[in-house]
Write a structure and sequence with these properties.
Elements: H1 15-45, E1 49-54, E2 58-63, E3 69-74, H2 77-84, H3 93-102, H4 107-112, E4 115-122, H5 127-140, E5 149-154, H6 159-165, H7 170-178, H8 188-193, H9 196-202
Parallel strand pairs: 4-5
Antiparallel strand pairs: 1-2, 1-4, 2-3
Length: 203
């Protein structure tokens, strides 16, 4: 046993072992930070909502779970001209839709169009909330086109993939399915590629 006054010699820690410990410790922290970063990037990069705007231009924005735009796509040449002049990525969905409606290139279409359709497809239970928000937004910009009728509705998530395969917005495909059988002689291809005002004349 030890007695009072005994001298205890402690061995020195090996420098190599200390270095290995700190390298392993730092590596663990870096790995954890990379995992967190990957998780955040994956969360923010996953589509949670698709919002389409159809007048004559057909445009669709993809929104993540944080309500930020992660991409914008045009489904005809009229829509392509509009999104080329706008930087929508990173903006909230309401700011992006407002920017689209207020864009200079959109104004001629709004002046001539009696019908503007906004459709929302959400992978979750927020479709009703988003629809209400965009409907209020549409009312705010109603002065831009007094004669136009705004129509905001939610669309089934399952239609998104089918719409994109057909090269159209989810809102336009949903409209076709809603009135299928009432479109007379107009074909699906004509329906998807015609101005919305012309389509409404058939319905």
């Amino acid at each position: 046993g030890w007695a009072v006054g005994d001298v205890v010699k402690l061995g020195k820690k090996s420098p190599v072992r200390s270095i290995r410990f700190w390298v392993a410790h730092v590596a663990g922290i870096v790995l954890m930070l990379l995992t967190i970063q990957f998780g955040i990037s994956h969360y923010c990069g996953q589509p949670a909502t698709y919002i389409s705007l159809d007048v004559n231009p057909s445009i669709e924005i993809t929104v993540n779970r944080l309500d930020k735009v992660i991409s914008a796509a045009a489904y005809n040449e009229h829509g392509a001209r509009i999104i080329e002049e706008l930087d929508l990525e990173g903006k909230t969905y309401s700011t992006a839709v407002l920017a689209l409606i207020e864009s200079e290139s959109m104004q001629p279409y709004l002046e001539d169009a009696p019908y503007v359709m906004v459709a929302i497809s959400s992978n979750g239970n927020r479709a009703a909330e988003l629809t209400a928000t965009l409907y209020r937004l549409a009312q705010q910009v109603e002065a831009l086109c007094d004669d136009a009728q705004y129509h905001c509705n939610s669309v089934e998530w399952d239609l998104v993939e089918e719409a994109h395969k057909l090269g159209t917005t989810v809102g336009r495909l949903a409209l076709f399915e809603q009135f299928e059988g009432e479109t007379g002689t107009i074909s699906l291809e004509e329906f998807l590629n015609s101005p919305l005002s012309l389509i409404m004349e058939f319905l």
